[in-house]
User: Which sequence fits this backbone?
């Protein structure tokens, strides 16, 4: 279940980040990243309340540590490394790679840093 959720996250955010940079430039890209992080935070608190999690703050910490690098890495990568002449497919590939690297970094952070496994 977690793998399918991560796959949906990878595809959705990579497409959204590539679109945001193509249509609105770096400003829209950063606003899309910020909105995604706020959405993840709100969804974490709502799901934590719905499932009566014993420690909502721990759930929030683990979810943000796992997913935030998957949002921040492609945002930084696209805003720094993307040229104005790059096509939509190149930006999408770069965003997809950034999300995958970010999720892998988030997984390492959660497992090694927080000891949540």
Assistant:
């Amino acid at each position: 279940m977690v793998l399918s959720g991560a796959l949906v996250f990878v595809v959705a955010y990579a497409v959204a980040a590539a679109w945001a940079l193509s249509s609105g430039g770096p400003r829209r890209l950063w606003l899309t990243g910020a909105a995604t992080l706020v959405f993840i935070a709100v969804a974490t608190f709502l799901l934590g309340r719905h499932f009566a999690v014993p420690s909502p703050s721990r759930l929030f910490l683990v979810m943000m540590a796992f997913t935030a690098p998957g949002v921040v890495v492609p945002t930084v990568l696209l805003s720094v490394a993307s040229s104005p002449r790059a096509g939509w497919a190149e930006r999408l590939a770069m965003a997809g790679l950034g999300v995958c690297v970010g999720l892998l970094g988030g997984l390492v952070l959660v497992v090694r840093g927080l000891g949540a496994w």
About this structure: The chain is about 85% helix and 0% strand. The chain has a mean pLDDT of 88. The radius of gyration is 15 Å.
